[in-house]
Amino acid sequence: MENIISMKNVxxxxxxxxxxxxxxxxxxxxxxxxxxxxNGSGKTSxxxxxxxxxxxxxxxxxxxxxxxxxxxxxxxxKQIGFVSSSLDDRFNQTLRLETxxxxxxxxxxxxxxLYENVTNEDRExxxxxxxxxxxxxxxxxxxxxxxQGEKRKVLIGRALMAKPQLLILDEPSIGLDxxxxxxxxSLMKEIITHQQCHVLYVTHYIEEIIEEMTHVLLLxxxxxxxxxxxxxxxxxxxxxxxxQLAMKVHWENNxxxxxxxxxxxxTKFAKAESK
Length: 275
Ligand SMILES: Nc1ncnc2c1ncn2[C@@H]1O[C@H](COP(=O)(O)OP(=O)(O)OP(=O)(O)O)[C@@H](O)[C@H]1O
Hints:
Blueprint: E1 5-14, E2 17-27, E3 33-37, H1 43-50, E4 58-63, E5 66-67, H2 73-77, E6 80-84, H3 85-94, H4 100-106, H5 120-132, H6 148-161, E7 166-170, H7 178-194, E8 198-203, E9 215-220, E10 223-229, H8 230-233, H9 236-243, E11 247-252, E12 255-260, H10 266-274
Parallel strand pairs: 3-8, 3-9, 6-7, 7-8
Antiparallel strand pairs: 1-2, 1-4, 4-5, 9-10, 11-12
Helix pairs in contact: 4-6, 5-6
The structure holds adenosine-5'-triphosphate.
Adenosine-5'-triphosphate binds near residues 14, 41, 43 and 44.
Pfam families: ABC_tran (PF00005)
Organism: Paranoxybacillus vitaminiphilus
Keywords: ATP-binding, Nucleotide-binding, Transport
């Protein structure tokens, strides 16, 4: 099986700012990756490059066997599912009054809103997905009436409707309480096990790295701090470097958890932020 994602010496520069610097990264067949990094470290820029919405200034990129520069990006995008809270904001404005099942079905046509001819098979597939995501009780409800956790699951259902080979979840736990977050993580486990798609998961919180996620990319100021098997990458040293805090990692129930083990001088932090 060819690589799912391959980046060779990728840099992304806008104006005077080097946003990504010399990123070389490969995601192979059975690997499920998490990207971690502080605000502004370049996570979204990497996702924009993977989905072909930003073009790197230097370097080579291929995704699902498509080499950028030689491929039809809209075709590639059909094989990539994308869920982010910015999509949530967009849907809050445009799809408030659409029903949950229509939003899920619209994923097949990559449209916001449902304008195409929907077949019985499409409706059946959407129903199966809603059962799989434990949201069949939402049938008939409009998007504006849902809780954050329910909305997130509807957006995941919409992304899965197109049977993507790669599912990108960009900070899917934003705004969720601890119970809704664990529910979402248990669905991730089900998706990895049963939907046969690769998951690329972006988060700020290492405890969201469930057992099924195998690899981690740590980013700091647009550069890779470490990338590889999670047990090798999630060390006290690498995390402290990535998050610029003295951190300790411990593992519980096959999940990593972080604690902060020294007091920070926050006055320095405030000065650095105001630069
Ligand atoms: N198209 C662009 N033009 C100019 N600057 C950009 C562009 N895209 C990103 N940046 C800048 O690059 C840096 C990295 O941004 P990016 O959104 O990739 O970070 P992030 O790790 O996703 O952050 P967050 O966790 O806050 O979402 C930021 O300083 C951002 O302002």
